[in-house]
Amino acid sequence: MTEATAPSDGPLTGVRVVELAGIGPGPFAAMLLADLGADVVRVDRPGGPGLGIDPARDITNRNKRSVVVDLKTADGVKHVLDLAGRADILIEGYRPGVAERLGVGPEDCRARNPRLVYGRMTGWGQEGPLADRAGHDIGYIAVTGALGMTGEPGRPPVAPANLLGDYAGGSLYLVVGVLAALHHARATGAGQVVDAAIVDGTAHLTSMIHGMLAAGVWQDRRGANLLDGGCPYYGTYETADGGHMAVGALEPRFYAEFLRLLDLTELAGAHADVTRWPELRAKAAERFASRTRDDWTAVFEGTDACVAPVLSLREAPHHPHLAARSTFTDHAGITQPAPAPRFSATPATVRTGPARPGADTEDVARDWGVPGLVSPPSNPQRKASS
To answer: How far apart (Å, rounded) are the C-alpha atoms in residues 43 and 355?
Structure first.
């Protein structure tokens, strides 16, 4: 980089990212890049993204800077192209064809900067029968088979918030993709387009399950398998106070410890005998229902039985292990997950709170060498094509 960049910490220090504002997986992906030290400039639209959340509390915009640009004006398009010309990565989450119609699609941006990695975040992808259709996380994970694996048999599948599709199948795959493409661009001088579709990423996450299915050790129905709650030593149990304990005693030695602490050692043979699983489940449920969550947490503390209390979002930061590791942090009065993963030489931190729309325009204009961001507009008229 020849121009000055914003001070930052983390392994991506010096990497410049333009984020065209949206909601969901795109902002989260950009936050992860920002957490790792990249100088992320979020291009907010006039009026905001319509999430209905106070911008001061939108954690997905931490460690970023914001400018407000109206992409329905010629000047707005010019500003984004100027930023793209100085960026390493651009992220957008529009429906297919929208960025092109606005004049900031891959060809427009890469004409200004052939080394640019252009990351596209969508649910259905850039092509296919559903590419132009609206959708949300639950629909994307539904068609991949992932949603159908969650929940109890005979009952509807359970939606895992929007963690599985938007963030695991979407954001994380977009980040892997743009960083891989950035590595290629720095080696060859040629950028490229990264098509990160939530349906692709979520399907990819089921790879091990498909292998088990092919091997005949996974039934294609929920609540009947080792890892989907069908197994009585891999699931959750209610406690006397309405709390829950999570059990993951898969290996024989962990299973033996689990039985010992529940005083159910007579069920040692049920580990590999599926005909005894109902008996094991019933007796384990009876044991757990006899004491509170805190009682059972104390019983299993310091053991290898692979049993843990099920905590709420507000409880999680206070768990002794997470507190010792500073897995959560407090910044500007907001408790939030700390950056992950961790790096020995280039640690990542929460440097700034959520970027307020347009608050960083002057700094970005100076640091990125785009003075037009703060200059009077030369052509405020709306584009004829908008």
So the answer is: 11
**What is the pTM assigned to this prediction?**
0.92
Please confirm whether the linkage preceding 341 is cis (ω < 30° from 0). yes
pLDDT in tens, 71-129: 999 999 999 999 999 999 999 999 999 999 999 999 999 999 999 999 999 999 999 99
- 244-248/307-309 β-pairing: antiparallel
CA distance 98 to 47: 19
48: left (phi over 0), alpha (psi -120 to 50) or beta: left
Interatomic CA distance for residues 125 and 369, integer angstroms: 33
| 3-state class percentages of the chain: helix first, strand second, coil last, to nearest 5 | 40, 15, 45
**Interacting residues of 339 by C-beta distance below 8 A, sequence separation 6+:** 10, 35, 36, 348, 349, 350
The token pair at 298 is 């104390």
* CA 295 to centroid of chain Cα atoms: 34
Residues annotated as catalytic (active site), given as ranges: 136, 166
CA angle 24/27/30 to nearest 5° reads 145
If residue 139 lies in a helix (H) or strand (E), which one and from where to where?
helix 137-143
